[in-house]
Design a protein that fits this description.
29% of the residues lie in helices and 25% in strands. By secondary structure, it is an alpha/beta fold. The strands form two sheets. A seven-stranded mixed β-sheet has the order 5-4-3-6-7-9-8, with helices on both faces. A two-stranded antiparallel sheet has the order 1-2. The protein is globular and about 45 Å long. It binds S-adenosylmethionine.
Length: 220
């Protein structure tokens, strides 16, 4: 099977080469995850348009903290319309759906992440709408809560995301961020709600990753 997978088909590739594994400290959710034999480089080599960083194939500290937080405090999302901005594998979106959100949109710009998201959402039997779209330049979407897992790792992106979140807050939308204190986190605008020790993909070492309310959203 492995040798016959067409590398240009992300869905077939992920199904065949990235096993579905339990997420550390989040046993409620299982995701397709890259392992050494996945050979993501074959997917990258076959893509002349540019492969990008395969964030979708790994766990990230911000998402791990935010997903755990939401699963342990379902009242934060129950009955609410939720956007997971920069959903990656879909960990946070799936957690929100499991915790009882009325609806969940998982927004992503990477086409491989879209394939992984669709597979992970189906595998976890979650009700999540997958949107292949950059929402950051536009008006706030019709949601009650925006969840942001680990999206402050580059300056330009962090500035765009922060401006978008400001517009969301001005429209009355709550914002929760999960982040391991990365360089471009707008820390002065945040109120820390909780901190978790998490291990990112393939690391035996845990690091603190916090959950924050942005611009004093009234969230426990
Ligand atoms: C470090 S990963 C975090 C993924 C996930 N939130 C988590 O915590 O596991 C960041 C993700 O954001 C996506 N991304 C970057 N810019 C984006 C944008 N403007 N809109 C939507 N997704 C974006 C990337 O493709 C990547 O999958």
């Amino acid at each position: 099977m492995i040798g016959t997978v067409p590398p240009a088909d992300p869905t077939a590739f992920i199904r065949a080469r990235l096993p579905v594994l339990p997420v550390p400290a989040i046993p409620e959710i299982r995701l397709h995850k890259a392992i050494p034999t996945s050979r993501l480089a074959t997917l990258a080599d076959a893509d002349e348009a540019g492969f990008g960083t395969p964030y979708w194939a790994y766990y990230w500290a911000g998402g791990l903290a935010l997903a755990r937080h939401v699963l342990d405090r379902p009242a934060l999302v129950a009955g609410r319309r939720v956007l997971d901005l920069g959903a990656g594998s879909g960990l946070v979106a799936i957690a929100a759906a499991r915790a009882g959100a009325a609806s969940v949109i998982a927004a992503e710009v990477d086409r491989y992440a879209i394939a992984a998201l669709r597979l992970n959402v189906a595998h976890n039997d979650a009700r999540v709408v997958v949107a292949h779209q950059d929402l950051t330049p536009g008006a706030p979407p019709p949601v009650d809560l925006v969840l942001v897992g680990d999206l402050f790792y580059e300056q330009a992106l962090a500035e765009r995301v922060t401006a978008f979140l400001e517009r969301c807050r001005a429209a009355g939308i709550d914002v929760l961020i999960g982040d391991p204190w990365r360089a471009w986190l707008p820390a002065a605008r945040l109120r820390m709600l909780a901190s978790y020790d998490v291990a990112e993909t393939d690391s035996d070492v845990t690091r603190p990753s916090a959950v924050f309310a942005f611009d004093d959203a009234a969230l426990g």
